[in-house]
Write a structure and sequence with these properties.
Layout (H helix, E strand, L loop, with lengths): L2 H11 L3 H7 L5 E5 L1 E3 L10 E3 H14 L1 E2 L2 H6 L7 E7 L3 H14 L3 E5 L11 H8 L5 H11 L10 H10 L3 H12 L7 H4 L7 H8 L4 E5 L12 H18 L3 E6 L10 H9 L4 E3 L18 E2 L6 H9 L1 H10 L4
Parallel strand pairs: 1-5, 1-10, 2-3, 4-5, 5-6, 6-7, 7-8, 8-9
Helix pairs in contact: 1-15, 2-14, 3-5, 12-13
């Protein structure tokens, strides 16, 4: 698989993304962001994209795509140009403060998916607390956590944070809370300055975004739970309460849903069946790729953009070029 980065680098250098974008013009591009940060901000979380990079990406989309809301994309005919949808997961306040002015300036619609139980609260996601605290943990604390989570990783390596997070995402809510209580007892607590970029919006701020006519709101579960880990009753409650809360509180509710974490292993057919019964027409994942008529509506693919993605990578990913490089390797190129 080491060939994939080589193929991607060669393709970017040759500007093959232009050809790929034309070839994929009938396939739907859905991009997902999380948070946006000021360029000078010391926050360096993987999910915080610098605002100047966000602006550059939006200008690129405006110039090269018909940018439409995801609901419109799924219910209207295709156009001559490729179509793109902009989405945000989690509902951070910086979506309002930093992203919205850029979207307004270019008149680009977007959909924001909310974990409804956390809107209007000071809650910080456990994944954020772990990402911020674990790198500052002492070697002995890391060793304790490695033993607790049965991690094969050397706790001194950079992959340790990802390994710990993935181990916790693989268990149900009760077991995860038990393990997190032990972990948070031995790692430093993040400062308010560190958690501020991860603050959720209030419902009043959500409404302010809606009044622009550009922003629609979708459900993202109530408590940001990975849905495949839930029993049938808990799954029904998480999905129903979130979808109904959005419908009740919002003037521009989307009929689409976003799975937390969103990998193929994070959701199953149960969720699609429940969401359909609640009136949803589709759900978005974080499985990378573009969408066509063969893509299951309750497993739509997205291109996830993180804070470290360079502009050349962005162009390559959204064109479908990087996904094609992976397919070449999977089909026998070594």
């Amino acid at each position: 698989m080491a060939l994939i980065p080589v193929l991607q680098a060669v393709a970017r250098a040759a500007r093959l993304d232009v050809i790929a974008r034309a070839a994929n013009r009938k396939r739907l591009l859905i991009i997902t962001y999380h948070g946006i940060r000021e360029d000078a901000s010391p926050a360096r979380s993987w999910l915080l994209l610098p605002v100047s990079e966000f602006a550059r990406q939006m200008e690129f989309l405006h110039a090269n795509y018909d940018v439409v809301s995801i609901d419109d994309a799924l219910t209207t005919e295709t156009s001559a140009r490729p179509r793109a949808c902009i989405t945000f997961d989690d509902g951070y306040r910086n979506n309002l403060d930093l992203a919205l002015p850029i979207l307004q300036g270019l008149r680009l619609p977007a959909t924001i998916y909310l974990p409804t139980a956390f809107i209007d609260t000071s809650h910080v996601l456990w994944t954020t607390l772990l990402d911020l605290g674990l790198p500052k943990a002492s070697p002995s604390a890391r060793a304790q956590i490695a033993e607790l989570l049965l991690l094969p990783h050397d706790p001194s390596t950079a992959t340790f944070v990802h390994g710990a997070s993935d181990a916790l995402k693989a268990v149900g809510p009760r077991e995860r809370e038990y393990l997190l209580k032990k972990i948070f007892a031995v790692i430093p607590a993040p400062t308010p300055e560190e958690t501020r970029p991860h603050a959720f919006m209030t419902w009043s701020e959500v409404h302010r975004m809606e009044t622009t006519g550009l922003i629609s709101i979708g459900a993202h579960t109530a408590h940001h739970e990975i849905v495949r880990n839930l029993d049938d009753v808990s799954l029904q409650d998480e999905l129903r309460s979130s979808v109904e809360e959005v419908a009740k509180r919002c003037t521009r509710p989307s009929r689409t849903f976003a799975y937390p974490n969103g990998r193929a292993i994070d959701f199953d057919e149960r969720s699609g069946d429940i969401l359909a019964s609640l009136g949803c027409i589709a759900a978005v994942s974080t499985i990378e790729g573009l969408n066509d008529a063969s893509t299951p509506p309750f497993a739509l693919r997205r291109i996830s953009v993180g804070g470290a993605m360079r502009f050349a990578e962005f162009r390559s990913h959204v064109s479908g070029l990087d996904s094609q490089a992976r397919r070449l390797v999977r089909n026998g190129v070594r």
